[in-house]
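Action item from last week, closing it out:
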Amino acid sequence: MKKTIILFLSLALGVMTLTAQRSDSEIKRDFEKGYRQLMKDLRTADSVTIAPLAQKVAAFRDEYRAHQEFLNKSVYPDGYDETVAKLEDQLKESQQLAESQGRIAELESQVRELSGRIDAMSDENARLIRQLDSLKTEMTALRKKVAELQDKIVKRDAAVFALVDSLFVQYDTQRLSSSDMKKITSLEKNNVLTNIKRSVNDNVSLLATTGTDGLDFPRLLDEQRKFEKNWKGIGSKLADAYISSKDRAREIAAIDTMVAGWRTQVDEAFWKALHKLFTDNNVAVAPFANGDEFHASVLRYLEEQMAGAEGKSDAEQRDAFEAFAYNTWGARVKPVWLPVMKRAGFYTDDRESEVDTKVKLWEAQTQPGNTLLYLLGAALALAVLAGLYLGMKKRTPSA
């Protein structure tokens, strides 16, 4: 009986030992299998699956921590510690990759959106460019029409005064009687006076419509002064010939007022257009409203450019000089604007010479290393200015 009990216990212990050995084997097998699957999943993870996988890695680590000592001995070569460390390293790498992929996907979405907007804007830009080209063409046509209209108004003004002159020649040479004069007056007075008023109104309207663009302002100023001179010459004669005594003063005053208002508007527009000519060529001359201010602004600009030359490179100095001397003063102001300004009494030859002298002095300063030329230019400037002063002094009557 005793032997039977011992045999039974031995068998039971053997079964228990065999069972324990299988359990360790299963633990090792499941550990290695779980590791391989997690590594495979981690390597193919994306921004959607990475979070659940992180939870699985944590659960895997916690599940086998109780068998850490056994697995460190039985799993070759890494054991529990290195195997879990590899999983966690792969998890971090996969998380970074998934984050990058998510950012890439976000950027791709933004790129698609922006590309769509760019395509839309490109279409809009193309439409605007076509519209701009059309507007440029239209603007060119409008400028041409403005020039044609200005030319026609000038010719019509000349025709009006030619008609007036021919009428007075007729009266002077044929010595018409008072009764003949009354007949002619009744037929012609409305036509002549109405045309003069219409000419002034048309010129004012042209100026108001176009502003400082499209018009030939030097010519406009010339024509206004010519019209005004003609009116002053024949206004009183027209009044004597065509206006009854009770209306004479009122009619003359009305036309005088119209011509004076036109003169004011032309002068204002002339100076604005001249200033725009400078600014369009990047020449920062201060605004001016008459000949004195114009001259002072130009001289001040030249002096400022020469005084501030040290803070600019040679190229900057040369560009500034060419913008003024070549592109503006030499190309447009001197040949086109100054002759009209002189005829209108806005400017003088002496002032022009003063500006030219400073321009030459500035040019000498812009020449790199040409100190001698600069000094000669300064001496020339002083000589010219002294000559101008002496000339003005001689022309000034003694008290």
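Closing note: The mean pLDDT is 77.
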